[in-house]
Amino acid sequence: MSEAAEEKEFERLLQFLRQNRGSDLTGYKRPSLMRRVSRRMQTIGVEGYERYVDYLEVHPEEFSQLFNVVLINVTSFFRDPPAWEYLQKSVLPDLLQAKGENGLVRVWCAGVASGQEAYSVAMAFAEAMGAEAFSARVKIYATDVDDEALNQARLGTFAPKEMEELDPALRERYFQPVNGRFAFHPALRRSLIFGRNDLVQDSPISRLDLLLCRNTLMYFNAEAQAGILSRFHFALNGSGVLFLGRAEMLLTHAHLFSPLDMKSRIFAKVASPDARHRPPELAADNGNGADMNHRERLRDQAMEDALIARIVVDTNGVIASANQRARVMFSLNARDVGRSLKDLEVSHRPVDLRALIEQAHAERRAVTQTSIERRFGGGEPQYLDIVVTPFVDEGNAPLGVGISFVDVTRYVRMQEELQRSREEIQSTNEELQSSNEELETTNEELQSSNEELETTNEELQSTNEELETMNEELQSTNEELQTVNAELRTRTEDLNELNGFFQSVLGSLSAGAVVVNHNLDVLMWNHRAEDLWGLRAEEVQGRGLLNLDIGLPLAELRTMIRPCLSGEAERQQVVLDAINRRGKPIKVRVTCTPLVAPGQKRQGVILMMEDM
């Protein structure tokens, strides 16, 4: 298969994952992503991405196994200690001082994996302000796309091996031993909220003072990184701080963040002169429920008197509420609340709202239609921006949609006037064009040089991120190998102990013991048998019993062994005249019993030879 065809099949696999599991991996770097997916395919013995799509359709449980391979969850407490030391000594004191004695602190740990990073920042704040103040003032939101890792993080319990690198003093203060594991202090645990968030397609948590996203951006390509960093910039307060991993430097995003300490990868938000475009906020519990009823009334009144027309529709297509502005704009009355949207004129004029609602539910994001023209008989047209926003509950189940109608008629007309003004100015600009061309030539030369430098920086950063990714993959593989080696070592010790036990039992028998298989080949020959017939176990192992040159008339044993092998008899015994290894005539009692496997299948016989 050509490289182009292989890449095309891989893109179809990514589209399949997005449509069936809502996991958008298209922003991840292709080389490392293809490498990890191929490793999973090799594990299950599937060749070709197209066949792997078929395999996923037949085996839905494979999705979780694939995501476990793709989403490498390598983390630890206070990973990269020098960076954490700078955060605790130079960043947190200034942050808490700016917040004052009673100010609430909001923290987001993105890409938290199994939770060690979230608990690390919790301990850092508790050390800086005290456990009581931490519980009262700090809220930490920890998110990831790996549901299995989030379930583990929510438990807040860790094995002793995971706690080895944590300072014993911190372990003593913030963890309690429970059933052989260490559980984070329950009073402090209530300040941490774990939830699923896809950095590529989900809305960010807003009004943050500190945002940690360490060794996560390096898995995304440049376009996805730019989108995520734009959301991070929106999510942080004006004095907010961004804490990244050691492979993430933001050299090409200086307009969003400036370094506080480049070595520690800690950055400050750069104020943006244009804050009109803001991503949607995620709803987050602030932990205050005392004035809930009052706040609900306040919120309802605020919606009722809002200058923007807004209609709320539930999952059954029934209008749940419509504020005053919406009722006036679309001639709705109180009886229309509770009716099906499709029965009202607003459902299809000025635009088909049902199609937008279906699109918002399908894509799980806000859908916008801009500058929709609404005409009236004999009057000037009205222009509306329509935004359909899906609502979901805590379990990500759909609740309904909110439909906002923003009257932009004034802005459209201003834009038309502006267009006319531009056309008038265009003739003047053409006269200046000849002068600008010379300057543009010089600018292009400078820009070319600048782009070459930026390209070099991007390549260096990409190489560094790729090396970091490979290092984490190797670390993950090494941990798996260590686990396998430990299990093999345990099983080997058990096997050696069992072999020693069997050797002890066989050595203590007073009779010669011989075990043969269905072909009468010798499988076992104990020390007493060596003493009787003068042949060592190494000399007879694997040889046919009836072909051995010993003083026992072996041919006479055939008629005794066959019934035991075939199942006709359970035990056979005979006394034979023989000559031992010293040449002395002896009488030997030979007892034959079947060798039965755990499944009741006869695998051979056991011969006991006693010198009478």
Structure description:
With 612 residues, the chain is an alpha+beta fold. The protein has helices at residues 3-21, 30-44, 49-58, 62-70, 81-99, 116-129, 131-137, 147-155, 168-174, 186-189, 222-235, 292-304, 324-330, 353-363, 409-508, 527-533, 537-540, 558-566, and strands at residues 105-110, 138-144, 157-158, 175-178, 181-184, 192-196, 208-213, 236-244, 257-261, 266-269, 309-314, 319-322, 367-374, 382-392, 398-407, 512-517, 522-525, 572-579, 585-596, 602-611. The chain has four domains: 3-70, Chemotaxis Receptor Methyltransferase Cher, domain 1 (Orthogonal Bundle), CATH 1.10.155.10; 81-269, Rossmann fold (3-Layer(aba) Sandwich), CATH 3.40.50.150; 293-411, Beta-Lactamase, CATH 3.30.450; 510-611, PAS domain (Beta-Lactamase, 2-Layer Sandwich), CATH 3.30.450.20. The strands form four sheets. Strands 6-2-1-7-8-10-9 form a seven-stranded mixed beta sheet. Strand 19 and strand 20 (602-611) form a beta hairpin. Helix 5 (81-99) packs across helix 6. The relative contact order is 0.06. The model is unreliable at 274-293 (pLDDT under 50).
